[in-house]
C-alpha cells in the first residue's frame, strides 16, 4: 500500500545518503591516515599539518551540516518576524562579503513578516543561500535581498550577479554532495530544502547564464494573535 511505498522510498533515500556520507568522509580519513603514517615514519614536513588540518575541517563541515538534518536538541517553535533573522544573517556575513568586494543591499519592507517555526533553522537557510551567492561572485558585485508579504506567504528573494547556473546543474542542486566547488560539501542546499519543506515552504531558483541567480524562498505568513484566537475559540 501507499504507506509501505513511502517507507521503502525513505529507506532508499536514507541508504543513498549513508553511502554518500561514508564516501565523502572516507576520502579525507584515508588521506589523514596516510599523513600520520608518514609522520610516524619520521617525515615531519610542516606542510603536512596544513593539509591534515584542512582534511579535518572537511570532515567537521560534513558532520555539522548533517547535524542540521537530524532533529535539533533544542527544538523551539515560535512566532517571529523573519526580517530580524535576515538582519542578523546579513550582519553575520557582511565582513565576508566586503572581503569579496560584494555589497549586500536589503529591502525588507515595512510590514512585520510573521512566520512560525524554528528560528535557528531558517537562519541557517539564509546563511547557506547567501554564502553560495558570495562564493559565486568571484568578481564582486551586489547581492540584493528583498522581502515582503504576498497573500498568505512571506516571499524572500536573494539575487546575485554570479555566473548563473546551467539547466543540467539546476536539476542536481540540492542532491546530497552535489558540489562544483573544490572545498564544497554539497550539503548546504539539501539541508536548506529540507528545512524549508519542514516549514511548509518552498524554494524556487531562477538563473540566467552570465547574469546571475535568484533564490526565492516562500514561507507561510502566520500571524500569532489570529491563531491564538482560533485556538482558544
Ligand atoms: P556547496 O556550496 O558546498 O558546493 P551547496 O549545496 O550549497 O553546496 O550548493 C551546491 C552547488 O550549487 C554549488 O556547488 C554550486 O555549483 C551551485 N550553486 C548554489 N548556489 C549558487 C549560486 N548562487 N550561483 C551559482 N551556483 C550556485
Ligand atoms: Mg554552499
Walkthrough of the structure:
The chain has helices at 2-40, 46-69, 82-99, 119-136, 167-172, 188-198, 224-232; strands at 77-81, 102-107, 114-118, 141-150, 153-160, 202-208, 212-220. It has 233 residues and is of the alpha+beta class. The strands form two sheets. Strands 2-4-5-7-6 form a five-stranded mixed sheet, with helices on one face. Strand 6 and strand 7 form a beta hairpin. The mean pLDDT is 88. The structure holds adenosine-5'-diphosphate and magnesium ion (MG). Adenosine-5'-diphosphate binds at residues 128, 132-133, 136, 160, 162, 165, 173, 178-181, 184-189, 213. Magnesium ion is lined by residues 128, 131-132, 188.
Number of strands: 7
What is the helix tally?
A: 7
Largest sheet: 5 strands, mixed
Estimate what percentage of residues fall within beta strands. Answer: 15-25%
Protein name: histidine kinase
Domain Histidine kinase: 20-223
Organism: Cohnella lubricantis
Notable characteristics:
233 residues, alpha+beta, binds magnesium ion, histidine kinase, 5-stranded mixed β-sheet, 7 strands, two-stranded antiparallel ribbon, binds adenosine-5'-diphosphate
Task: Summarize the entry for a quick read.
54% of the residues lie in helices and 21% in strands. It is built from seven helices and seven strands.
Amino acid at each position: 500500500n501507499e504507506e509501505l511505498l513511502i517507507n521503502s522510498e525513505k529507506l532508499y533515500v536514507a541508504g543513498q545518503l549513508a553511502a554518500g556520507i561514508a564516501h565523502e568522509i572516507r576520502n579525507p580519513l584515508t588521506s589523514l591516515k596516510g599523513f600520520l603514517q608518514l609522520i610516524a615514519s619520521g617525515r615531519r614536513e610542516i606542510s603536512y599539518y596544513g593539509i591534515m588540518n584542512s582534511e579535518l575541517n572537511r570532515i567537521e563541515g560534513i558532520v555539522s551540516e548533517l547535524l542540521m538534518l537530524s532533529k535539533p536538541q533544542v527544538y523551539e517553535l515560535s512566532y517571529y518576524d523573519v526580517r530580524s533573522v535576515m538582519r542578523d544573517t546579513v550582519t553575520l556575513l557582511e565582513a565576508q562579503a566586503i572581503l569579496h568586494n560584494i555589497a549586500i543591499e536589503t529591502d525588507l519592507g515595512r510590514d512585520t513578516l510573521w512566520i512560525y517555526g524554528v528560528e535557528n533553522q531558517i537562519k541557517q537557510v539564509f546563511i547557506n543561500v547567501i554564502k553560495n551567492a558570495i562564493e559565486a561572485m568571484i568578481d564582486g558585485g551586489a547581492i540584493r535581498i528583498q522581502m515582503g508579504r504576498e497573500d498568505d506567504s512571506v516571499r524572500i528573494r536573494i539575487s546575485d550577479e554570479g555566473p548563473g547556473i546551467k539547466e543540467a546543474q539546476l536539476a542536481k542542486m540540492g542532491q546530497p554532495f552535489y558540489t562544483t566547488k573544490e572545498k564544497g560539501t554539497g550539503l548546504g542546499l539539501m539541508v536548506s530544502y529540507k528545512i524549508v519543506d519542514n516549514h511548509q515552504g518552498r524554494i524556487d531558483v531562477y538563473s540566467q547564464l552570465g547574469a546571475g541567480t535568484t533564490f526565492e524562498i516562500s514561507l507561510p505568513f502566520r500571524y500569532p494573535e489570529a491563531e491564538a484566537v482560533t485556538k482558544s475559540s
